[in-house]
Amino acid sequence: MRQYIVRRILYSLLILFFISIFIFALGRVLPGDPVQAVLMTSRMGPIDAEVVADLKAQFGLDKPLPVQYLVWVSSFILGDWGVSIASGEDVREMFMHRLPITLELFLGSVFWACIIGFPFGIVSALKRNSWLDVSLTTGAIIGVSIPVFWEGIVAIYLFAVVFRIFPPSGYVPFSESMSGNLLSVAMPTFIMGTQGAGLLCRFVRSSLLEVMNQDYIRTAYAKGLRRAGVIFKHALKPAMIPVVTVAGLTWGYVVAGAFLVEYMFAIPGLGRMGVNAIFAKDFPVIQATLVMVAVNILAVNLIVDLLYGYLDPRVRIQR
């Protein structure tokens, strides 16, 4: 198991290296000049070539691209994420200030995905071909198919404009008001968790049905074991092997949905910060956001691989 863990960590670090190169190159091929955008925003009047050169030197944009990459990577690892070109703030401080908000949205969306997806998938498998199975399966397909932005618009119209249950936008910190915080994140987290819930429901159902048809499950029933014991003790763990992969994909949906949802609901998290940075051509913020998103997804996929090794010992065998 130890060799398996080390091998997966090394693979993840190698992938992160190539992702960092891609992120750095992506920031440089985006249309527009960030220095020109800063000068236009600051309304400094006629743009002097000397001022442009000074700003490029200040942000390290005058160096060759390989040198810029090495400086950026080494500084990032040491905790120096640079300074925002648009606002002049420290990027790491910007990230840490918004991280708790985004983490709250992530945890809330995972809560909705799990609390809906797993029970509905199990019930759908146990009530196969019944009206309940058809209803839950249809709901899961709808949840996966609906775009996040469309679901957000409909939710805002119904629950914030028509019925006035939740606020249409904004974020209330938990330290200020517990009820206000829960109301402000209820709709965004539910919308972010909808696609994940639909995926989990579908895969839990199909995987559990496949396991329930295995010979050892029939043997367990023949021994007189109760249905609940057979399902939760003998069938559920093997059925979770393909579901673990879907859980990793679900986290990817959540991360991607955070950018749209935070911008749509005016939540000051990392997703909104990243979108604003793209509009402003703010390279340091864009790079830091994308790197942390990549690290987040790679970490989840690493956890998925390790769970594979736990759930199925055959995966740990090095071929």
Structure overview:
This protein has helices at residues 2-29, 34-42, 49-58, 65-77, 91-126, 131-145, 148-162, 178-212, 215-222, 227-264, 270-280, 283-311. It starts with a helix and ends in an 8-residue tail after the last helix. Helix 1 (2-29) packs antiparallel against helix 12 (283-311), helix 10 (227-264) runs antiparallel to helix 12 (283-311) and helix 11 (270-280) crosses helix 12 (283-311). It is 77% helix and 0% strand. The longest helix is centred in the last third of the chain and has 38 residues, at 227-264. The chain has a single domain (91-316), classed as Orthogonal Bundle (MetI-like fold), CATH 1.10.3720.10. By secondary structure, the chain is mainly α.
- Per the CATH scheme, the topology name is MetI-like fold
Helix fraction bin: over 70%
Supply the number of structural domains.
1
Q: What quaternary form is this? A: single chain
Order of helices and strands: HHHHHHHHHHHH
The top-level CATH class is: Mainly Alpha
Q: Overall pLDDT, averaged?
A: 83
| Quantity of strands, as a count | 0
What is the SS-derived class?
mainly alpha
Alpha-carbon Rg, integer: 24 Å
Q: Which word captures the global form? A: globular
According to CATH, the homologous superfamily is MetI-like
Terminus-to-terminus distance: 14 Å
Question: In summary, what is this structure?
Answer:
With 319 residues, the protein is mostly helical. It has helices at 2-29, 34-42, 49-58, 65-77, 91-126, 131-145, 148-162, 178-212, 215-222, 227-264, 270-280, 283-311. The longest helix has 38 residues, at 227-264.
